[in-house]
């Protein structure tokens, strides 16, 4: 369990999320993921990275139960800083990152997928931001890279989800895999195609594409996080998180 890194000498590395039961990462898990992505991208033998997950879905975001059982705001601050570090590590990874999404991709999962260079997804995978229902905000920056602007707003306000097939129609998912298919194998095939190129050119291509992005994704996300802290100071966030925990525990 945790974060695993696998390489096979082909120039493609897999960074795998494995936090059962739903890949809701604890605060230290986000930092571990960030470190793994940075170190893997820095390895000259790695030419492309597949970001994937074990279990029922890609990522359900932060571990809300950890926040509720930790006194004060220490867990909240750690999770926010951890998410910032992990999302930035995907974006800043020295080589292209291909996200392989199956099942659900929610909250922080959207932050990871939205900052990836390419997405391969199961056609029935679901993407969404349930943050409003949890008394938080964030990752709209990354959702805006996946869906049209007004749909992004609707998804934030209503917490509705879209599927991998929907994102393929928008052009933000490169390839959809039929339900039950091997998403990771499809992502590895795309990564292998990239890894076969000149590695120096690919690394400069990644750097140059980041340099021409119209939005500074790190600054934009940090702005969003400020409102999450405001909601916590107001007390509404804690009440929303506790409702979520109570519903899951049958309370």
Can you tell me about this structure?
This is Enoyl-CoA hydratase. Belongs to the enoyl-CoA hydratase/isomerase family. It holds the Pfam family ECH_1. This protein has a single domain (2-180, 208-249), classed as Alpha-Beta Complex (2-enoyl-CoA Hydratase, Chain A, domain 1). Helix content is 51%, strand content 18%. The protein is built from 11 helices and 11 strands. The chain has helices at 27-42, 64-69, 74-92, 108-115, 140-143, 149-158, 164-170, 183-195, 199-211, 217-234, 236-249, and strands at residues 2-7, 12-18, 24-25, 48-53, 61-62, 97-101, 104-106, 118-122, 126-128, 161-163, 175-177. The strands form 3 sheets. Strands 1-2-4-6-8-11 form a 6-stranded mixed sheet, with helices on both faces. A 3-stranded mixed sheet has the order 7-9-10. α1 runs parallel beside α3 (74-92), α3 runs parallel beside α4 (108-115) and α3 (74-92) runs antiparallel to α10 (217-234). The protein is globular.
